Amino acid sequence: MSSEMTPRERWLAVLRREQTDRVPMDYWATPEATERLMAHLGCTEEEEVYRRLHIDKVVTVGPRYIGPALPKNENIFGVRYRDVDYGTGTYQECIYHPLAKYETVEEIVAEYRWPCPDWFDYSHIPQEVEGFADYYPIRGGGSEPFLTYCQLRGQQQALIDLILCPEIVHYCLDKLFELCYIDTMRIYEQIPGKVMLTYVAEDMGTQENLLFAPSQIREFLLPRMQRMIDLAHEAGAYVFHHSDGAIREIIPDMIGLGIDILNPIQWRCRGMERKALKRDFGQHLIFHGGVDNQHTLVFGSPDDVRQEVKDNIRILGAGGGYILAPCHNIQAVSPPENIVAMYEAGYEYGQSG
After folding, report:
1. CA dist., res. 12 & res. 289, Å (int)
2. Residue 21: CB atoms within 10 Å
3. Count of CB atoms within 10 A of residue 243's CB?
4. Which of 94, 107, 199, 253 is 20 to 30 Å from 276 at the Cα level?
């Protein structure tokens, strides 16, 4: 193509399976990794990093909390956290699960207060995207409720519940999905037709297999995800589906629900080989991610990174349908030289012929 496209035009062309000037490139990283990258490049603003590395930035919009004052390190669900420093990054880890003590739905109904959708204000969103909506892709809304359910009940109990307490799972997921649905709908109402991407996620895989039985996924998650996906499509948004790990077995179900983008493509996980994914699902899905940040970005050389990017573009990007990105948030243990190599290679090898 003769002229350079904007990030929004580039993303949209891939989503519509139209010709682009080059492969779009997205950026996911922890704050610590971004700080190291900025120092390496001598940049004082993140925007300068995006320009230098030709990253097709996505602008995310969402509400502001205006509800009751929350205790320190506690969220709207009553889940409490503490900051844990792992040496190269600090993460919030759950230390209190407010629904862990309950054994029946009736107890939860009687004693637990769910968050109210009116605890959030959306009126600022139009101003946030003013001047950006025609240049950057806008992401807003979505859901990842089983993650929240694990925080409410505790990871182990949440998985036990799928077998021993299904009525609690159904009750809580109905509540959580409804909150997500209302949140997403209110975002759309503020900027009609401007949200390009909606994040409908749930981590359903381990390194080797699904985290849950397919029957559990189909009972507890998929019907509720369908409602979110339908809402996004009715608003003109594309559905960005994130699920870590070895999820090949459930991909046909997700395609049946109508997802548009599959992330993160952890191709070293069992069953997630790139050629087979592209062969079997490439006509239905846009692939997002694929640059391995468990091995290549952390332990590889810049040449290893460049080769992986080249392979991803050749395999996942054959005939279009690929957005280059790391397969999860880049961690601060990844050398900045490797991050730069990823985007420089993406820019070099991703040019349309």
Report:
1. 17
2. 16
3. 24
4. 199
CB 44 within 8 A of CB 57: no
Distance from C-alpha of 342 to C-alpha of 55, rounded to nearest angstrom: 11
Q: Please name the residues in contact with 13: beta carbons below 8 A apart, sequence gap of 6 or more.
A: 5, 19, 20
Which tokens is 163 given? 């077998």
C-alpha–C-alpha distance, residues 127 and 134, integer Å: 13
Spell 250-265 as b/e; 16+ CB within 10 A means b.
Answer: bbebbbebbbbbbbbb
Identify residue 70 by its one-letter amino acid code: L
Return the H-helix or E-strand segment holding 322. Answer: strand 322-326
Decide: residue 202, CB within 10 A, 0-12 exposed, 13-18 middle, 19+ buried.
buried
Tens of pLDDT, residues 259-270: 999 999 999 999
Distance CA 265, CA 272 (A): 7
**Residue 13 CB coordination number (10 Å):** 18
Q: What predicted TM-score, i.e. pTM, was given to this entire model?
A: 0.96
Could you give the CA distance from residue 27 to residue 58 in angstroms, rounded to a whole number?
A: 9
Q: What is the mean pLDDT of each run of 10 residues along the chain (353 residues)?
A: 84 97 97 97 97 97 98 97 90 96 98 98 96 93 97 98 98 98 98 98 96 97 98 98 97 98 97 98 98 97 98 97 96 97 98 78
Strands (E), 86-146: 90-96, 120-121, 138-143
CA dist., res. 114 & res. 206, Å (int): 30
Structure tokens that stand for 329 in this block:
């948030």
Give the DSSP per-residue string, 200-217.
Answer: E----B-SSSBSS-HHHI
Q: List Cβ neighbours of 309 (8 Å cut-off, separation of 6 or more).
A: 291, 324, 341, 342, 345, 346, 349
CA-to-CA distance for 213 and 227, rounded, in angstroms?
21
CA distance 68 to 271: 46
Dihedral sign of CA atoms 335, 337, 338, 339 in order:
positive
Output the six-digit token pair for 115: 């968050």
The position carrying tokens 């700080």 is 35
